[in-house]
Write a structure and sequence with these properties.
The chain is an alpha+beta fold. It is built from ten helices and 15 strands. It has two domains: about 10-140 and about 320-340, Gcn5-related N-acetyltransferase (GNAT) (Aminopeptidase), CATH 3.40.630.30; about 145-315, Aminopeptidase (3-Layer(aba) Sandwich). The protein has a seven-stranded mixed sheet with strand order 2-1-3-4-5-15-6, sandwiched between helices. The chain has a six-stranded mixed sheet with strand order 8-13-12-11-10-9, with helices on both faces. It has a two-stranded antiparallel ribbon with strand order 7-14.
């Protein structure tokens, strides 16, 4: 069964925001309208950034991001897509056939695809027959916790672990307050916290330059698809997160905090406000975006997220297809060597 909305990372708005933040990426967006037999290009314009994507009348869609790999080679990346019914063989074959034909037309080395689907009941054999193979080189989170938030305040908070309920009240008692923002000044403050957080994790977070967050927020704020949450105490920012919204979901994708305020539990209050805001906007789920983290050797991040909702969803995985097996193998070997050499 197809999800009612495409994932945030499969919207034309994200394609435009990504290109603005990192011009090396070129977005292509295609739709198959209800009753149509073929995918057609969907023109991307800056005017689209003033509203959220409306899938009304669209049967399926595909956002493809193209990037040069150097040496006249290109990559196609499909994050959390395409937006199709993955258990409909006809729809799957049509989408994959289009993706492969477009890749050949653009002369790409390989296509990387990360479906917005869970591993249970995913059509692995059929996708393999269509030429895609699973790879461990994932880009987006391999698993997630999606908190059901379509509840009244008391019921929602009661669904959390008792320690989280206690810490939310403790944060308020200790003078923490929460506000939202999309201003460049606050994005820069958020970035300063990101750098502190990255330093604590010995650089394992691999954060983007500040211009990336400034650009993404500026692009998506007018439609309400991006919003900063800042937790403050005595005018000092203790914690912050960048939350994206689309369809039924809000997604906590980037977060940071000041270790000096750890005993004041600012992150708990931040998530509490974020979830309530998302619910009031009509969202049904709050995606905590990644449970098994590369930079979480003690499992603290995992425990923190599971205390909101103790149910992990494992994603179907990351899949590659190439029309040039020899060139692809050479690229993989070079990439592996590059990682080993740091």
């Amino acid at each position: 069964m197809k999800r009612p909305f495409p994932h945030f990372l499969q919207t034309p708005q994200w394609g435009l925001a990504k290109q603005r933040a990192i011009p090396a990426w070129t977005p292509f967006f295609f739709v198959k309208k209800a009753g149509s037999a073929e995918y057609a290009p969907f023109e991307l314009s800056k005017d689209m950034l003033s509203a959220q994507f409306d899938p009304e009348g669209i049967d399926s869609s595909i956002l493809i991001l193209e990037r040069s790999l150097g040496m006249k080679q290109k990559l196609h990346y499909i994050p959390r897509g395409p937006w199709i019914d993955w258990n409909d063989s006809k729809a799957l074959n049509e989408a994959i056939s289009f993706i492969r034909n477009f890749a050949n037309k653009r002369k790409v080395l390989f296509v990387r695809m990360e479906p917005d689907e869970y591993e249970q009941n995913f059509p692995y054999p059929e996708l393999t027959k269509l030429g895609f193979s699973k790879t461990p080189d994932y880009v987006q989170a391999n698993d997630t916790v999606k908190v059901p938030i379509d509840k009244e305040d008391e019921e929602l908070q009661q669904s959390f672990h008792k320690k989280h309920r206690y810490n939310i009240k403790l944060a308020e008692k200790r003078g923490m307050s929460v506000r939202t923002s999309t201003s460049p000044e606050d994005v820069i403050r958020f970035y300063e916290l990101l750098k502190k957080t990255e330093s604590r994790h010995a650089g394992a977070l691999h954060i983007h330059p500040v211009e990336y967050y400034l650009s993404v927020t500026k692009s998506l704020a007018p439609s309400g698809m991006a919003k900063l949450y800042l937790v403050e105490k005595d005018g000092v920012i203790a914690s912050s997160s960048l939350v994206f919204s689309c369809g039924e979901e809000a997604i906590y994708m980037f977060g940071a905090s000041d270790y000096e305020f750890r005993r004041d539990m600012p992150n708990h209050l931040r998530e509490w406000y974020s979830m309530r805001d998302a619910r009031d906007e009509g969202r049904k789920f709050f995606d905590l975006w990644g449970v098994t983290m590369r930079n979480d050797p003690g499992g603290g991040i995992k425990r923190y997220k599971l205390y909101y909702y103790d149910h992990v969803e494992n994603m179907a995985g990351t899949f590659d297809w190439t029309p040039n097996k020899a060139g692809y193998a050479l690229f993989k070997a070079a990439n592996k060597l590059r990682r080993l050499l740091g």
